[in-house]
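Model it.
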Amino acid sequence: MRVQVKHIIILFLLIFLSCPLTSLPTAAQENATIAEELKPLLESAQEKGLNVIVVSPGSEKEENVSSGPSLGEQALTVRSELSRIIGNAHELGPSIMTTLQRVSPDGSFFWLGIAVLTAIGGILVGTGPTLVIRNWNRKHFADFFNPNPQNRAEKISYLMFRATLILLTVGLAFIIAVLVAVIFDSGHDASRGTIGVILVAYLAYRVFRHVIFFNLIAPDTPSHRMINLSDESADMMQRDWRTIAMFVIVICSFFVWLALLGLPPDPLKLLVMISLLFSALLIAYGVVKHRKEFHDIILGEGEPSLKPIWRRVLASQWQLIILSYLAVAWLVSVYRIVLNLPSALAVIGAPIVALVGAIAIYGLLLIFIDRFYVARQKRFEERVEIAHEQRRREIEAEQKALEEIQENRSEDDDEEIIINQVMSAKQIEEMPVFKPVFKIVLEEAVGILVIILGLAYVLAAWDISVGDQQHPVTAFMDTLVIAFLGWLLYRAVVVYIDNQLEEEGDDATPEDGEPGEEMSGKSASRLATLLPLVRNVLIASIAVLSIMIILSNLGVDIAPLFAGAGVIGLAVGFGAQTLIRDIFSGGFFLFDDAFRKGEYIELDNIRGTVEKISLRSFQLRHHNGPLHTIPFGEIKQLTNYSRDWVMMKLPLRLTYDTDVERVRKLVKKLGQSLLSHQEVGELFLQPLKSQGVYRMEDSAMIIRVKFMTKPGDQFVTRKVVYAAIRDLFEREGIRFASKEVTVRLAEEPAKELTKEEKTAVAAAARLIQDDEAAAQAQGQQSDDGP
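Modeled.
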């Protein structure tokens, strides 16, 4: 690695951003000392019932020990102290020179040059082994790089593995540089501090540049880049932000170095405030310059209009949030520095530390989630493959047994019922698909959890104790956690039930079949009928429970709410008995599995397909279009036409000279051939067969055929069966009988009938046909025998 001049300039310590000035006594330390000294007096005052103690430290000045100055008094103090510090700004340069001369052993700056050269020498010596190790890593870990990663876990794993190797080499270089500094140690405290600041600043820069930025932006590996950036934008962001990090580290390390050397408090405070201001301005410059790139990163890949509204708002307004935070954080830092309060410098750097830590934790959790589901998917596919192969062998054995039965049967044997067990090629080849149901919920949950932890860290940097039960921020964080848990339960319920509905095929609508035809829709399963109701109940329960806990956490007494709910429930129970009856009746009907969504049912004289089910009623869509809404409490008797199987019986009018036995054999062979039909073969539960002569009429004998299908499939198969029978009878010379009505007159007419008489005869014949048709329809509806 070639060490450039700018690498050497990176001397100083960003870690100091999260620490107070160690050389200055803080107000908290002074208060702790005073508290220890005054503890006996305070205990004595409490015993005597006193609230205020006047302490005379031996001078005319008297101080009251109280709870501290008010906010207005603190503001006045800050103003006066800040005016005094700025008024003495001209002393900053002389104070620095005086400090450097004071720590010098001989009054010159020779010691400073020796310290700088020692630190640079240590860095150069440590660079050599790291170059060798880096080349060795490239050769021996080249197989870890996959130019075409298959999933997100591979990308994150590679980036984290590379970051770990880089961190180890950087740490090795730092250790070697420290050893060199120890070897050439002169025993001068100022030189030691100077060397330490240079080495730690160099380490901080290398970590930010090579470990964090290089792997987060991934300018050299677009295939593994986890953020939505083009190659050009990634290169530009890498250059700009490493330069910003360099200057921020240099600026902040400079006042750290002077603080270690013992710069007086007032000049040091002024220098810290100026340094933090320039650091905030540099970060703000990077935010404004790369606002478009960060906008794309927040939105992610895909169509922006399809993103959640909160994500689009955050992407458009994030720069205002960051700039506002930087301004407020700098003002708070100035306030804390002037009053010697703790955590004065961590306010600005806390979001950066929180962001880096959150990204690392989120990446590790995503790797765990991905690898967990990859392992589950592999085990699932292995089990499915074993079950699929076993089922294939069972089907082949069943089919072979059926073929043997067919070969051993005689031609005249028609009593045995043959069940169609031939599976279609689609059913044989179709395999269950692994669905990671809760994966998206876990990813969202860990993302929100990491955000909450990062927010807690930032609040801690602002010296806000999230564990203090009396603090309003604690109530806000508790509310945030409760809302997160409620949201997590809600998402888990919705995702699980929606997945179950998808697997059950929640598409039971009349539009799935032929409009205007009975039982035209596809019926839903029992789960598909009950789960929407269960989902609504669970969501309502989660929402009510979460709201109650949040109100209780905010200090609201929820006991009256429960009492009021009980009174309202009692009033509803007395005043809405019909509603309660409908709800309970519906619950029993649904849990008894009396009907499901999409099934064709009959209530008294109302028929239709179940289209919608609510808590107290359901809706039936008649095949002619009308929609009936029926309360559950009004159900007395219910007939379901969509369960298990349907026996379809078709009458055939044949002439009296037809050979019935021949028709039986022909129909039997036709039924066997239809089992292998490309479109409807798999729909038959029992094949087409003849029932023989069903009824005798004047002009024809009625032979009936039947077959069994699942409910709803009989209408599709009926069309194919009618067409096949027509073609078969036409080929075999079997004639259908025309419907005739013979009218015999009581007396032979002596002359030809008049027009009026012919009309009367035709009307009588028509009346007979209508009566026969009505009787036939009634017989079919009552299913008069097998």
